[in-house]
């Protein structure tokens, strides 16, 4: 089996590369990644030593590059992780989100049509459903929840999902889509809440919490997400959407306090800052479909996953110190200095 994994130098994509090399040692994994600010070749250093792994630097929206790769590798499966993924950046500069997340998806699917494919899998997000009220814990996103996006990021991901389903219906492309809740774990770029809290707390710096910290996210350890995608590409039904989530809802303030407690750092580091515009209040996934159809269940609860994650950041200081010592400093200043 030849699998093209796009965005494999990013957070979830790299975890998926390692998951597949470990669990399917006979597969060939080809990573296509443009190495944007979020892509990191150091993350793939171990994978590079494996003869069944190939890294190709390229943009998923670059048709010539993508077609050349399909001609060379004749993939059986494509898993498309590549995306601009940070909501705050999409609010500052939406355009690149449209190019990568929508046009990039189209180019990848055109290549699948031209060269043939057993399965095209689109890695989507629960953010396409919009948000839920804070005072209705009984409500959760199902696969039938209407799309109702808030940010340029989620709008671009929802657009891509619509294109994927259109390519299935119109051209018969064998597709699947997964919509997962917030991930956390190793190799998470420190612009996102959990790695940002860990890395700043370790340097005794303030922790910016948007608004009152009452917004709720439904956290899933990244390895559980990888296992779900592995199941979907092998056993999921064509043309179907699968929600992925592990019933681990927490307010942002609870998350920040849990991490600080784990690091033995004081809560006085917490600083409340101006809220994110259009900030989604609550995400909550109903994962019944993937549980019943494919027998998927998460193996980590939040408390276990956070312990493992904090330990990983403590043991991999050079990985994140290199990131936060560069261009990241300018990003942090421009995003947070006037908040
Ligand atoms: P990330 O930002 O950490 O990584 C994105 C990767 O894609 C990087 O390696 C980057 O270099 C690459 N990339 C960006 N533009 C590219 C392009 N034009 N061509 C090729 N490569 C490009 O993202 P992530 O958090 O790992 O998210 C991966 C996917 O999962 C995204 O599609 C995202 O929407 C989705 N998702 C993320 C979460 C989450 O909690 N992080 C949850 C649900 C779904
Ligand atoms: O739900 C899935 C989505 O989860 C993915 O599709 C996105 O790619 C991923 O980035 C993530 O989006 P969020 O916006 O939920 O993640 P983020 O880590 O940016 O923020 C989590 C929550 O924490 C959110 O309510 C905003 C808040 N926050 C975030 C940052 C960076 C803060 O309070 N302070 C911060 O500094």
Description:
- The chain is α/β, with parallel strands linked by helices.
- The protein is built from 13 helices and 13 strands.
- It has one domain (2-187, 220-247, 278-301): 3-Layer(aba) Sandwich (Rossmann fold), CATH 3.40.50.720.
- Helix 3 runs parallel beside helix 5 and helix 9 (252-263) crosses helix 11.
- Residues 85-87, 125-127, 181-182, 192-193, 196, 208-210, 215, 217, 252, 276, 283 line the site of 2'deoxy-thymidine-5'-diphospho-alpha-D-glucose (DAU).
Outline of this structure?
This protein is of the alpha/beta class and 339 residues long. The protein contains 13 helices and 13 strands. The model has no long low-confidence stretch (mean pLDDT 97).
Helices, by number, come to 13
Which CATH architecture?
3-Layer(aba) Sandwich
Ligand set: nicotinamide-adenine-dinucleotide, 2'deoxy-thymidine-5'-diphospho-alpha-D-glucose
**Sheet with most strands:** 7 strands, parallel
Structural class: alpha/beta
Helix share bin: 40-55%
| Strand order of the biggest β-sheet | 3-2-1-4-5-6-11
What CATH calls the topology is: Rossmann fold
Could you tell me the strand content as a percent range?
15-25%
Roughly what is the average pLDDT, rounded to an integer? 97
Distance between the termini: 49 Å
Shape: globular
Order of helices and strands: EHEHEHEHHEHEEHEEEHEEHEHHHH
What is the count of distinct domains?
1
CATH class: Alpha Beta
